Amino acid sequence: MKTITTLLIINFISLLSYAQTDSLPAPKQDSRPEKIAASRRELLASFLIDDQVGTGLWMDSLARLEDENYAGLIWDERWMLYFWTEAYGTLLAEVSSFDANQRALQAWKTQPPKDSLFEWVDFSLNERRFDIFSSIRKAFLNEEEKAFTTLLLEYLLRLNTNEEEWTERLQSFENHYPSSRFLCFVRSVKPVILKPTNKAFGISGGLLVGNWRGDIERSLATPYTFNFDLYYWTERWNFLFDASIGGPSLRRDIFVGNEVWPEDDPTSFLTFGLNIGYDIVNASKLRIFPSIGGGVGLLRPPTPDEDEDPLPEYYDDFNFTEFHFTAAVTADIKLFQKNYRDWNTPKGSYHGIRLKFGWNGLNFGKKNADLQGEMLYFAVHYNLFAFLAK
Description:
Number of strands: 11
CATH class of the largest domain: Mainly Beta
CATH topology of the largest domain: Porin
Helix content: 25-40%
CATH architecture of the largest domain: Beta Barrel
Number of domains: 2
Distance between the termini: 109 Å
Radius of gyration: 39 Å
Strand order of the largest sheet: 1-2-3-6-8-9-10-11
Number of helices: 12
Largest sheet: 8 strands, antiparallel, barrel
């Protein structure tokens, strides 16, 4: 009887223990992002101790964790690790099918957590790049694969700093291997280099300060006007349309018959011209060209605003229009030439300062003797010159 009682007690304790164990919460399962983060830490640890086998195993682990929503390794991280482990066959197979669509799909995935993996791999490959280039030359690859793998390493390590040279090298690869399986990737990373034609457009604008010569100097105050150029350039020839808009006040009374335009009244002074010039200097930092042409000048009382009193009717007698010859020497100081790609223009385009020394042989004196004379001027502009692309 005692034995039966003992067995019953033991069975009861076992059942109780089983029930208690079964009621414990299940161990927490790491989420996919947490598993990716942990695997990247292990990969980095293997990388830092130069363990290629361990690095490869953790890369495989991250590849299994990656799906349509989560990225285990960013594509350039993975490719640099292929270089580090000398897995050229795997690298080339992946790159050959990597196009703009694949790049977009990678970008839409949830990216790996921020860590130092990329920085360490990038630093290590930059330090060892000459050894890796040597390894590529010795690798069991054909000439096309060696040429492309060399270009790819330069691209990943950002050694392609000269865009024009880089574009020429990619184009050379494309010309040499027109049926290459890597052309899709080559074309996706080839910069678009706009080639300049021998034609360009420009615009400049700024302040003009004039100096009257003749009787007009006693009639009008010093002219300060806004002056601008629109121009077309081709093979050193410049074809310009320019305009000046200002309004110097009167220094003395102007008479037409018995009517008077009184001293200190404001004026409306405008000139428009067409000119042709030729570059006598066109260097990397400076362009100088003389120009000649003709223009029209207008001098009249300013039109009053709506809330101002209208001008007396006799002011219509003081509307002076004339035609004149012009000449100027223009110097462009070329600045900001390296930013031409930001403006989507070909190389050679520039922003800069434009300085103009000019002469307008005004003929207002034919209308009124008090306006006889001409104008010399100096203008400072900000200038934008843009080549047309082929």
